[in-house]
Amino acid sequence: MKQKENILIIGAGLCGSLLALRLAQRGYFVNVYEMRPDLRKTDISAGRSINLAFSDRGNKAMKLVGLENKVKSLCIPMHGRMIHTKEGETFLSNYSGREHEYINSVSRGELNALLLTEAEKHENVNIYFNRKCKSVDFENTTALFKDYEDKTEFVEDADCIIATDGAGSALRKSYYLGKKFLFSFSQNYLTHGYKELSILPTETGDYKTYKNALHIWPRGDFMLIALPNLDGSFTVTLFLSYTEGKYNFNNLTTPEIVTKFFKNEFRDALKIMPNLVEDFFKNPTAALGTIKCSPWHYKGNTLLMGDAAHAIVPFYGQGMNASFEDVVEFDSVLNQNKNADWQTIFSAYEKTRKKDTDAIADLALDNFNEMRDHVGQAIFQEKRKIEMALEKEFPEDYTSKYSLVTFNENIGYKEAMLKGRAQDKAILNLLSNKLISTNDKTSTILEKVKKETEVILNENRIAGL
Ligand code: FAD
């Protein structure tokens, strides 16, 4: 049965287009306003980061809207991290000891296009492009837009407005500037920024390095990563400080310095990146930050979702997955609150969801240190070996933090964080006190790790963590 409510969605990115599709499937009338041109018709970059790591939480959302198979055809499985040492040696560190657990590289543009097309198949959805939201009157549930085509401004109203307009959200700004209620907001930038580069395919269209992995060149203060694309290329991202260290974005100013930096630090990558200098000076350097805010909603009128509510740094590969999971959670709140008003629904959603998005924001910062530094350290490699062995031999009894976050879509990020951090600490304690080693029987290690984890979890419970 079609329900009467008119919902206005601001932003047709990954979260907004999925939300439009799901709400249409539920029978709502949905109008979506997107500031950029239609990416299916115009050759524009889909926004930041050309490809993304897509995993089980995101896939749960695709299952919900019936798109699992279509999305699968856009995905390249990545079974582990391919670590590249400074000397040019490589080794593969699997993401999980369970073979069916892997992440995928997916094109942001292709995925967004699919979601838009599927949403538009519903007659109760209209998507308007080139319309930028300038502000939201959250008391009267109206939004002011600028039409980039005829340069006019217009106001739209709706029964409720959901803003999925990303990290620079117009609704969030209106909450902040409106000063009509107690709105808490924090934005913390990393001192590191990022720049996208590329490894192009060979002349015959093949991959120049191993296809089914997320490549990492960890160098302590900075790192390079590469994710495969379906056309044989890789999108490469350099994460580097703006100002600190021998090399930083501010002093990589000439082709000679950039080439020298890569020669010293990423020699094997440089060999397959003849286009490095061109990419480096053509592509922008962008900042990375974490945004937390509350409340996400104003009465039953407006709601923030996706990056607009909780932008995170990209180091767990979970920002998009979390934004997709928002839609799954919202859908389940709608199921649990049939016939409730929007205020009840928005409150219930924020109550269940915020603790988990706060947790993934913190986990993503942890992983920044793990990826750029820890993956190259002996004790962390030993810990990873132990985790792999435990997951392989005891798939039912042990799940690492990475797997809890990435592959266990049935528990929230907060639960994954608390358990995962305790396990990490337990293994590192046991290793540094020489109470376990990779030569021990896996069953003995499991027993010790479980016991030590329980001790840590208990201490945390007592400390109220
Ligand atoms: P967005 O994707 O930002 O979409 C917002 C949409 O709203 C856009 O279409 C925009 O044009 C539109 N819009 C903005 N303002 C307005 C306005 N005023 N009016 C109308 N429309 C507007 N996540 C992962 O899960 N895995 C990864 O591997 C990963 N890698 C990343 C790498 C980098 C370098 C970065 C920066 C992020 C990465 N992310 C990753 C995070 C992911 O990109 C975001 O979490 C995700 O895009 C959030 O989706 P969204 O729809 O909420 O916001």
Which descriptors would you attach to this protein?
alpha/beta; 465 residues; FAD/NAD(P)-binding domain; 7-stranded mixed sheet; 15 helices; binds flavin-adenine dinucleotide; 40% helix
Describe the structure in your own words.
The longest helix is centred in the C-terminal third of the chain and has 31 residues, at 342-372. This protein has helices at residues 14-25, 56-64, 68-72, 108-120, 170-178, 255-265, 267-271, 276-282, 307-310, 319-336, 342-372, 378-393, 401-406, 413-432, 442-462, and strands at 6-10, 29-33, 51-54, 75-78, 80-84, 90-94, 103-107, 125-128, 131-137, 142-147, 153-157, 160-163, 184-199, 213-218, 223-228, 234-241, 285-294, 297-298, 302-304. A hairpin with a 5-residue loop joins strand 10 (142-147) and strand 11 (153-157). With 465 residues, it is an alpha/beta fold. It folds into three domains: 6-75 and 106-187 and 289-368, FAD/NAD(P)-binding domain, CATH 3.50.50.60; 189-287; 377-462, no CATH class. The chain is globular and about 65 Å long. The strands form four sheets. The protein has a seven-stranded mixed sheet, with helices on both faces. Strands 8-2-1-12-19-18 form a six-stranded mixed sheet, sandwiched between helices. The protein has a three-stranded antiparallel sheet with strand order 3-7-4. Flavin-adenine dinucleotide (FAD) is lined by residues 10-16, 33-36, 47-49, 52-53, 132-133, 164-166, 168, 170, 194, 237, 306-308, 314, 317-321, 323.
